[in-house]
Task: structure prediction
Amino acid sequence: MPEESTTEVTAAGIARLAGVGRAAVSNWRRRHADFPKPVGGTETSPSFSLADIEQWLRDQGKLAEVPLRERVWQQLAGHPGGTVTGLLHTGCALLLLRARPGAWTELAALPDDRLGALLPGVFEEVLTARFGPHRSVHTPSPAETLPAVPLLRAAVELATELGGARQAFEFLLGRHLDANPRQYTLTPPPLAELMAALAAAAAPEGRPVATVLDPASGTGGLLRAVPHPTALHAQDADPDLAALSALRLALHGDADVRAAAGDTLRADAFPTLAADAVLCHPPFNERAWGHDELAYDPRWEYGFPARTESELAWVQHALARLRPGGTAVLLMPPAVASRRSGRRIRAD
Result:
């Protein structure tokens, strides 16, 4: 059996647990000989055992009870596979809770080792039913699941506190995104809602925007803003983001969700799709978008984009994936409207 992993917490996490500043944590380390020793991290940024820290804080009268949100976040941040892997495993558990709440209740009564052994098989059933056999969300193995069992139990408890599986996943994903602002390019929710509203307003009267594609989906924020879709298609070059998008969208509603990992311009996952709308916030100013390989691609109906015009490649990809009369709404940098190299394509 794998050794039990220790959830670790940084000095910043300790400060949040105790409701103090980081300077106070530094003072405690200097002044109290019994302050827990680091178990990981580096000399300048050490990490500590969360269980040891909680006990020390209680012994010192500095902590009455760790808030559930903070406990789950610290467990997620201390996942042995990293926070994103922890989010994916948590998303699988929350999807199980949403789809088969009775099954989770029965499984949760089992001891941790038995639960860790059985969950992968149940996850496989739920993921296949929701996303199909060819999907971006992979089923964790028993060896991967067992260390995450305390996190998964706590995440389900958090779902009860927050009002549902969707709310719990949104909280944990949002916390991760807030903690890593330079790692992700996000579309602000009000802007995502505006783009979705523009697509809906352009649809013919009486015809809903039912099938929607985001070919650079990131964390799924644009597709999440679409009201009452029947089918959502997402693709992202980052496999982790494709999987997170799939779980986020599946927890958000009942639309059919198809998410794929891969370079959209070079390896389109939905070549025959005819969507009602395409929403997209593509990468800006990308030189290595496939200019040399894609010179004769049939998507360039309005002209072959210059190497410096990656945004116009994304625009034409979006247009190529629309049904007749469909609408594409893309977020573009202002320079796209005035660069000389894209003048002919814009004119057409």
Observations:
- Residues 112-131 form the longest helix (20 residues).
- The first strand starts at residue 8 and ends at 10.
- The chain has three domains: 8-66, 74-179, 189-347.
- Strands lie at 8-10, 40-41, 46-49, 211-214, 231-236, 256-261, 275-280, 322-330.
